[in-house]
Each structure stands twice: as C-alpha cells, then as structure tokens.
Specification:
single chain, 449 residues, FAD/NAD(P)-binding domain, D-Amino Acid Oxidase, Chain A, domain 2, 6-stranded mixed sheet, 13 helices, 19 strands
C-alpha cells in the first residue's frame, strides 16, 4: 500500500510563477484550506514585475479573456476591474485570400475582453496599473498568499522527508525556502523547465510552436470594425500558420503562429500583405511595432507533470490546442488544488486526481482540435472552399448557416470542446451542406466569363 502524503497544519506551498496559473492555484488552494480549517502558507516566487511596461513585465500572451473564463471568474467572485479591460469584443472577422466575413457572438453578448498581461507596451503613455497579471497577484495576496520577487535558481529534493529546498535570488544574495508542495506554474518561456527536467522524475516539456507578438500603435480606433472585433487571418504566407489582430486601447496586438524562428521577418511579410495593409491603413500610424517579442505556444501535454509533492499547472503541463491558455491555467490549477486536499499530494494522488482528468478534459480533446485545424488548413488550399465556407456562414436564416456560424464561433473562441465541434462538423447534414455549397461555388466560378 502506498504511503499517504497529506497537507497538514502549517504546510508550506511554493508556487513558482506569478502569472495566472500560479495566481489561480493560490486562489483555489487557499479557498480549500479555509473551507477545511487548515492553516497553510502559500508563497509565490517570481522575479518578474508586472508593473513594468514592455516584454520585461509581460508574460508574452495576446491577452484575450474568453467568454467561458469570464463566467468562471465571476463564479469565483474575481471581478477584473475596468482599468484592466482594454476592449470588449462584439465578434470576429475571418479573412482569407478569397473573402472576409463577420461572426457576431451567437449568444448576443460582449463577454470576451482583451487585457494586457503586463502593464502595457514599451513606452506606453502612463494609464496607471492596467496589468491583468498584477491584479490577479494582488487578489491572492489579499487572500493570504505571500510573494517573493526573485528568480528561482535551484530546486533540490530533501532526502528522507521528500520535501523541496528552493534556492532563489541573485548570486550575491541567495536565500532558501523549504516547501511541502512545489507547484510549477511558469509557462514555457523559462529556464525553470530545465530545473524540473533535472529533478529526474520523468518530466518533459510539451511540444510547442513559435508565437510572435507585437503591439502596433494606432491613432484612431473609433471605428467599430477595428475596435470591437478580433480579426483572424488564414492567408497564404508560407511562414505564418495563423494570425490575429486584437484591439487594445491605442494599440493593435498582432499575434502570429509561425513555422520558423524569424519573427521580425514574419511580421513584415504579414503586415505587407494587401488584406492586412488595407484593414489597418486608415486607423494606424506607420506599421511599426512599438513592442515586439516571441514566445512558445504549447500544442500538446507535458510528459509526467507530477510527482510526490510536485505538480505542474498551466502551459508547462497541458493547455488547449491553439487557444485558451488562461482557461487552461484556471482549470488545471483548480484540479491540482482540489486533488491536494481531496486526495493528497503523492505521485499517485496527482496521477488519479489531476493528470487523468486533465488528459481527458484537455489533452485528449486536443486530438480533435488538431484534426479540425489541420483539415481546414488543407481544404483551404483547394479552389472555392473558403468562398463556400464564407457563403454558408452568412446564411443567417437557414439551419445550415446558423450551424456553420456556431462551429466557426466555437473554433475561434473555445466555447465548446473540440470533440463536440468535431461531431457537428462530421454530421451527415453538415457534410452534405458543405459539399453542396462547395460544388455551387465551383460551378459559379467556371461559368464566369
């Protein structure tokens, strides 16, 4: 029989990473502790200051808070202040080489919001504290967490007890803390993943793609077309798989998933594309980024993100395919915190209470997402497919048109699981509808003079 490892009175929990995954875990573990009357100490360790502008204070994210996450935060009584909300989104525009069309929120709400993870782009005119990540840190500090603003340098397992010794700080001012539970909530853009790998419990980081982010200053965002819609692009740019333009106050955030690590070149190619150039030409200054960075985007689960007294949450553990990193941080943090109290903090506890449910909810579902995005990418190269898809989506009075809008909306927002979307796409009625519209489109092309 396995040895039980439980959180007891006075347990110290070290959360490495002060972004949303770390803050969400701290929120949930403190909530569980209060519910059970167990006094614990939660210590967040992060060397980043989210009040700094530019990449040094940012967690390298496009900053879209989804509709489901808005609802989940509301349930937890986490109210994001207006000062942190950049824009409220009415819908999406989808742009292809052949057509552009609008998708409004199928529920008629404006609950998708955009935020800055740090305190805005480099050299932004001061607007006070607007960082989403800083707000979340302050929220859990008010709930009783503590924060050590220093980089973690080393982690060692203590023989006998199995606890962890964390060394942090600069070379000439190192300090140490012993923790009963180590929570890795760092994301992928950090050397701390090497520290986890070197602990030798079998962890290996997720597979990832390169994501390029830039902030384009604009001098006029009054028109609804740019200020209230996220624009997504499926263009034939060889080095760019997918791109989006996300409105903020005074800036447009350009987010691109790329095929090679040459982000500035990819950005130049994207901004020079006629469809993109035409979109922003009337509302922006010269297309020059005020802020620029690149990050890694997870496209699969990590190998063994758990061990005795250790769990990995957020992007460094598992996240949804191509989207909803904040949602996945919330869900994995909640599962890990619940497991810690409901079951325990042993390897087997996290395997059964955290890893297996997480794989079922997120990682296994991503297989359907990979098929859907891959199939759409391949079919989009075929003549007439994108035009047929656009025509279906604009048939707002027909059942097939409404179904197409719902599929596209949920693919972009993550409101439904990929498994559910997969079933909708491959229903006989939907398949026949797409095929019929595609044939009509091709016939219309051939009859044009």
């Amino acid at each position: 029989m396995r040895n039980a490892i439980k959180l007891i009175d006075g347990a110290v929990i070290g959360v490495v990473g002060g972004g949303p995954a770390g803050s969400f875990f701290s929120h949930f573990i403190l909530k569980q502790a209060r519910k059970r009357g167990v006094p614990i100490k939660v210590c967040i360790l992060d060397g980043k200051d989210f009040l700094i502008t530019g990449p040094r204070g940012c967690n390298l994210c496009a900053g879209v808070v989804s509709e489901p996450l808005c609802n989940l935060l509301e349930e937890e009584e986490i109210v994001v202040p207006e000062r942190c909300i950049q824009k409220r989104i009415s819908g999406y525009y989808i742009h292809t080489e052949q057509s552009s069309f609008k998708l409004l929120n199928i529920h008629g709400r404006k609950e998708i919001t955009t935020v800055y993870r740090g305190n805005g782009p480099r050299n932004i005119e001061s607007k006070g504290v607007i960082s989403f990540d800083d707000y979340m840190v302050q929220h859990v500090l008010n709930e009783g967490a503590e924060i050590i603003r220093a980089r973690v340098r080393e982690v060692k397992r203590i023989p006998g007890s199995g606890k962890f010794l964390i060394t942090y700080g600069e070379k000439d001012a190192r300090s140490e803390i012993v923790v009963d539970l180590l929570v890795a909530a760092t994301g992928l853009n950090t050397n701390f993943l090497n520290v986890l790998t070197q602990l030798g419990f079998g962890y290996h980081p997720p597979k990832s793609l390169i994501c390029c982010l830039s902030e384009i200053p604009v001098d006029n965002l009054d028109n609804e077309y740019l200020s209230e819609f996220i624009h997504t692009f499926f263009l034939r740019i060889p080095s760019v798989k997918l791109a989006a333009i996300i409105p903020k106050q005074g800036y447009l955030t350009v987010s691109m998933i790329t095929r090679k690590d040459s982000c500035r070149e990819n950005l130049e190619q994207f901004l020079a594309h006629p469809i993109v150039e035409n979109l922003v030409s009337e509302s922006s200054l010269p297309l020059s980024p005020a802020c620029f960075c690149h990050s890694r985007m997870s496209i699969g689960p990590a190998k063994k993100p758990f061990a005795d007294r250790l769990v990995v949450v957020g992007d460094a553990g598992m996240t949804r395919y191509y989207k909803n990193g904040l949602d996945s941080a919330f869900l994995t943090a909640k599962m890990a915190a619940s497991t810690a109290f409901d079951r325990g903090i042993s390897n087997d506890d996290f395997k059964e209470g955290f890893y297996k449910p997480g794989m079922a909810l997120i990682a296994n579902d991503n297989r359907f997402g990979s098929i859907l995005f891959g199939l759409d990418s391949r079919l989009s190269r075929w003549r007439g497919f994108n035009s047929a898809k656009a025509r279906l989506a604009q048939r707002q009075q027909s059942q097939i048109g409404i179904a197409t809008q719902e599929i596209l909306w949920n693919m972009l927002t993550g409101n439904q699981s990929y498994r559910q979307i997969f079933k909708q796409v491959f229903s006989p009625k939907m398949m026949l509808g797409i095929l019929a519209e595609w044939v009509k489109t091709l016939l219309g092309m051939t009859t044009k003079p």
